[in-house]
Amino acid sequence: xxxxxxxxxxxxxxxxxxxxVLAVGxxxxxxxxxxxxxxxxxxxxxxxxxxxxxxxxxxxxxxxxQQAGARAKYLRSSAGIIDLAAVVPVPLALLLGVPAxxxxxxxxxxxxxxxxxxxxxxxxxxVIALEARALASVIVIFLTILVLSGVALHALEGPLQPRQFGxxxxxxxxxxxxxxxxxxxxxxxxxxxxxxxxxxxxxSGLGVFGLWTGILAxxxxxxxxxxxxxxxxxxxxxxxxxxxxxxxxxxxxxxLLRRLDLAEKTxxxxxxxxxxxxxxxxxxxxxxxxxxxxxxxxxxAFFGEMxxxxxxxxxxxxxxxxxxxxxxxxxxxxxxxxxxxPELARAVAAEAARRTGGATPHVAHAHAAxxxxxxx
Amino acid sequence: xxxxxxxxxxxxxxxxxxxxVLAVGxxxxxxxxxxxxxxxxxxxxxxxxxxxxxxxxxxxxxxxxQQAGARAKYLRSSAGIIDLAAVVPVPLALLLGVPAxxxxxxxxxxxxxxxxxxxxxxxxxxVIALEARALASVIVIFLTILVLSGVALHALEGPLQPRQFGxxxxxxxxxxxxxxxxxxxxxxxxxxxxxxxxxxxxxSGLGVFGLWTGILAxxxxxxxxxxxxxxxxxxxxxxxxxxxxxxxxxxxxxxLLRRLDLAEKTxxxxxxxxxxxxxxxxxxxxxxxxxxxxxxxxxxAFFGEMxxxxxxxxxxxxxxxxxxxxxxxxxxxxxxxxxxxPELARAVAAEAARRTGGATPHVAHAHAAxxxxxxx
Amino acid sequence: xxxxxxxxxxxxxxxxxxxxVLAVGxxxxxxxxxxxxxxxxxxxxxxxxxxxxxxxxxxxxxxxxQQAGARAKYLRSSAGIIDLAAVVPVPLALLLGVPAxxxxxxxxxxxxxxxxxxxxxxxxxxVIALEARALASVIVIFLTILVLSGVALHALEGPLQPRQFGxxxxxxxxxxxxxxxxxxxxxxxxxxxxxxxxxxxxxSGLGVFGLWTGILAxxxxxxxxxxxxxxxxxxxxxxxxxxxxxxxxxxxxxxLLRRLDLAEKTxxxxxxxxxxxxxxxxxxxxxxxxxxxxxxxxxxAFFGEMxxxxxxxxxxxxxxxxxxxxxxxxxxxxxxxxxxxPELARAVAAEAARRTGGATPHVAHAHAAxxxxxxx
Amino acid sequence: xxxxxxxxxxxxxxxxxxxxVLAVGxxxxxxxxxxxxxxxxxxxxxxxxxxxxxxxxxxxxxxxxQQAGARAKYLRSSAGIIDLAAVVPVPLALLLGVPAxxxxxxxxxxxxxxxxxxxxxxxxxxVIALEARALASVIVIFLTILVLSGVALHALEGPLQPRQFGxxxxxxxxxxxxxxxxxxxxxxxxxxxxxxxxxxxxxSGLGVFGLWTGILAxxxxxxxxxxxxxxxxxxxxxxxxxxxxxxxxxxxxxxLLRRLDLAEKTxxxxxxxxxxxxxxxxxxxxxxxxxxxxxxxxxxAFFGEMxxxxxxxxxxxxxxxxxxxxxxxxxxxxxxxxxxxPELARAVAAEAARRTGGATPHVAHAHAAxxxxxxx
Lengths: 376, 376, 376, 376
Fold this sequence. Notes:
The structure is a homotetramer. Chain A is α+β, with helices and mostly antiparallel strands. Helices cover 63% and strands 9% of the residues of chain A.
């Protein structure tokens, strides 16, 4: 049996519930820290906190119970650690005699729950791991500037402003606020040489973080592209029409398609709008709203191609009837692809013709609806 | 009938007028808030504000009247909401008895009119929608650092600086000013550990916004490219010469062309300048200033290709005679294209020769003018 | 006769001289503003300022005299305006009776001379022109956030902090310092709602400038690539060997080559270093330091290819004997190119063999020197 | 004999030791600057500093001794200068009679040792050298804004705030803190015009550093790609299977492979995980943990290809048995490559079949293990 640690949270309702519990919990914790809170509000916050704690405990127990054979593994996973961190520290601190107002601050760890609700953080971690070497050299530059400027300012400004630069930790504090361009203004050099160095530090700071930004951005873009390809590839294999194209065309398509996960009753195509995309249905179903007989298209079908071929506006609304995954192909990419792989255009036309030929007249109708040129 | 909600504003004069009204309105509103304003200036500002309000009301009524059948749709569109937001809130507030100086602050909503005057904001919205998932994970990281550092600083600095860190909202305020590298300096940690955490927050802040920047920038670049392709494609189909090339060459060209929307009497090509582009005329007309007989070229023609082929300087000015849309092809792209698609070079040469052959001697003249090598 | 407005400044010595004059001038102007300057230093500064002014006047006159036929054109060009701005304002202000210490501040305009000494600023302007539309929508967002947050903070904080938020200009000042993440700390919101809005403004500010950065960076990269291509193309046509390759290979090469403008006596290749490049000589001359008979290679020759083919280290120093322009081809690009265009590898090998065959024995020697595998 | 200045530091243990010495040294130096340090701690710090100095002296002597013939060259290299800078300045200052607490501040130069421990800094230097021209034009813009705004603010604010803007150096200090968005808040303009200019300076500052960031980021990405290619190329030539493919496929592969340097006993592939990569072994050895007979694969072999071909999960752990260098090929890149170069897919399949055929049954086993579809 494959382990699904978050099967419990897959549904959208549960995710919203988790977010609500988190918001209530953090709000209550925040309220507890305010000195001028009324007694009643304090009591209400306290109850809210205990409720959240109870809910998180339930969640932990349900998850652990669900994963009968893999309990230890779950508790050692990052999800398990986050779930434990939500439940254990506060009671432990209270037991150890820490005052309640301090102990409840540990509920701040609940914010980590957010990470389990949002996908994509793992990707971020991977980018950082891949670019570790480049990021490390940026950190070295950062530290070098930090220490050298800290020492220099300590030597230059220390005798004049002992409270701001009188020791190296103090002037390193100045250096970090300056190098990150935060600039609190609690420590400001006064000598000419000190200000000259400070100016250079500010400029270097921006250069350093420009590098940092550039490396992260480049890495993130590459990783994004890679993940999209893998996810699209899986979906393309579910559309027989796509899978049977020439391999280079399939690869090119997989790169260009954009996945759309739509809820039930979402309008995909709006009547009268310019046609900028065609869609392949990877899973689910859509309804083409043609009067008097709406048409339904299921997984493996495609629609909206006529608008690309003719440049016409859409002539009917298309709405999902259930949660549906579509693969959208932009008009620009469609033209590029068909120029390089004319067989794709032919295949799209043939498939459309085949459908119109009688096999599935309803679908043909759907295409016909798309075909009428809108009076733009 | 297709709905053109902003047909009224298409003209450049009307756009400038709108900007003027907006500037006057906002300036008057600003003046009203200044306590030491003279009575006369205050009266003038008041009159200006009422005039702007009246103009915006007129605009709303004209637009609603224009769209006879689609009034409700217009009022529910984002343009309609902005138009309503410019007209309704101020009178409503005055009717509800809000003091005039407060009520008129709602005229600040007029700034939203800017969004309807500048294209490209829709694109921005689309980028954000497409990258929503990646941006969401950045926000999660942001919130996590915010809460954790806020809690930590409240615990560490709260007892020492109750006015700055004495409650969680206060230390969250510190955290957000620090994480965004704004650094007002109204709250500054004093303990060693607090400053260490603050340093890490500053560095993380730059990392987080590096990611944010990277994601937005990448998405924006991709969307830009896509939109340019669609707009160019439409224009390429208006130039018969281009439309009849091999499909792969057309696609490549469409990617490489740069659209230029020029006003009347704009100088496109300057005599004596190096030739870095050739131009296709999508719509409008240009005049090649050759003495004694200037030559006019209309939609579908091209000019400036000789400079690319010979590397010579331009030998005549070329000026638009009416609003003209050109498609420019850079010398670098021209060479790349003709290397990959030699038929393009042949087609350009043939077309030039055909024209010189007698059909349109004036055009031939234009090309000849371009041909003379400038004494560089 | 082609006009060369800066022919005067082309030489490196003159550029350094210009920089020196500029530095002296600005330093003297700076000194003049310092209240505790000694009388003698003040006199010296004054003399320096007058000398600089005289030099700039001479420069203007020489340039205008040089361009006999195009004087008016030069004075209307950006270079001419900068030259005039350096000479006219100060004397004019003095004549109009402005006190000397104020009048000399106009010497700050001399900094504009820098722009004429550094190439690449024109490119920057072009990028901004090309991306104007995208940048405009960022400015619209910026202004919208600025006005809305300024109005909101004026309403919320105005009554509490009249000196910081009491009028709209004051709270717009706060908004611009916050939105740009400068954060002077002279105006800080105090109400809960004000701080919430401020937090959002900070985050939006970073988002807005992320977009700005992204647009500029993307545009700059594209423009850079385009300009390099044009400059390389010109040079490639000066190397017969390159010009005679198949067109697609030439284009690919032009994209990949990196131009190096070297001064006399620069070491291009160092003995014992790994071979990461081969070089084509576009103009100038190099000397291969082989004992006992150094070899000279002129324009059109190439060297360093053996290191790419064999992965060996360099076996001789190569030094320029005069200002030389080289086109460098990286090892990675060389392998990519030769895989796609095997005729290139064959041509390089054939050319090397032809030379070794006797026509130019010295050159052959140079290649042989490169051939010996270094004991790595 | 090739010189290996850092042969001594290649091992990971030595690197960690260097980092430890550096950390201890800098911590001791920091402690020395704190005025309220106890006598005993001061003495301990002093001893730690002298020990570090002694260690760095030893390192210098060992390195110099190792490089018998190239001592002078080593001492002139950047590594040698860093080593000298760690050893010479402190004793020299003490000899010259500088007080100990000042002299020891020169130990801050030890931070430069970091640069020798982290690779990739040379690359950074190269990027800056290559983009020097573009970066120079950014610096020109920066200086121009700096001087012009400094002069303007001095003229506008000088009379009102002589302590903040009374001389040009003072107002340049304001300009640099504002332009870099640091914003200490020690000098804030008060006049309307001054604040308007300040607002423009802030916005320009962000624009300027956006350019700076963009240039550095673009250059860094290109250089990264180039260096990876060179490193991969070297490794690809060590895998006979790869080297014998068609040249275009080899080049493409070299671009796409990602180098992984793994320590002993690292888990490369985990049982049950989706197969997202295949691996070529450039050097070292891995063990495929199949029960009951684990299989070992050495340099030149590949594994994990079945997961790519079938989309199945991994069915066995793969662990390195010694320090190993792998070349990973992502699933997305694998599909792209095999679509463009079908011979690669055939070669992979043939090689796998050949192995299964009997030559190395253990390896066949390994592949078979990979083949079983995981019950996902």
